[in-house]
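Researcher: We're teaching a course module on how sequence relates to structure. For the next exercise, students receive a sequence and then see the predicted structure as tokens, so they can try to spot secondary structure elements on their own. Here is the exercise chain.
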Amino acid sequence: MNRDRGFTLIELLVVIAIIALLMSILLPSLRKARESAMDVVCQSNLKQWVYLLSIYTDNYEGSFPPGWNMNKGMWMSRLRPYYQNRKICLCPKATKLQSEGNPPGTFVGWGIYGDPDYYNGWTPAWGDEGDFGSYGMNGWMCNPPDVGNIYTIAVSDRPLFWRNKNVGGKEGRPSNIPTFCDAIWDGTVARHTDFPPLTPGSKLGQDGMWNYCIPRHGNADSINVCFLDNSVRKTSLKCLWRLKWNKKFRTDTEPDWTKAPWMKHIREDCK
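Model: And here is the predicted structure for the students to work with:
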């Protein structure tokens, strides 16, 4: 008997076919496991942000940060004394930054402020040089002065801000009031009259729900949202219009989904 006989071509092809079959079976599972792991990390990051916000509000009699109309008034600056690990600034699915030459979009973070490749080195007055991230804060989750040192809050908008964490518990359901979530920019104000973005990651005006309505998680149908009660959950993009973004946000309105055909597959399965 010839004990040195190697594989025949047919045997080799059979082995390769079996390996290819196993790979086709395992790869989707591995990909799903990787996606799930990134979801967990993202939600953990958001949990830390709302925890940091809680520390801040405890130190300021419940008041939220002043926001965009004050120098260094945004959450990145105001919460900086309470954290050191800047990895929590980035969703693991959106670690690329605009300063690296990437256009704004679903999987691209904002910043780095002050970087020469970020809008010619722009650092907004409400933030600090070096700020970056792929999360945003609910813009109504602020306590701005009516007349700030950057701009004046419109009279019609002044009653809409939550301003103080204790207000949310009295005038709304904390588990339905967003604080931080996946976002294209560092945050913005959302209104119940906002249209969904025309394409994933596209911008509609200066402010609006487009900043949060990005297919970053799930089956390209959801984002992670952290709420005033410190809970975090994956939320369908269509359900963003069912959250209480500001004190007078109408959660019973129905956007015109025909303006966003890319969202056709998304279910409105809201908790």
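Model: If you want an answer key for the exercise: The chain has three helices and eight strands. The longest strand covers residues 222-227.
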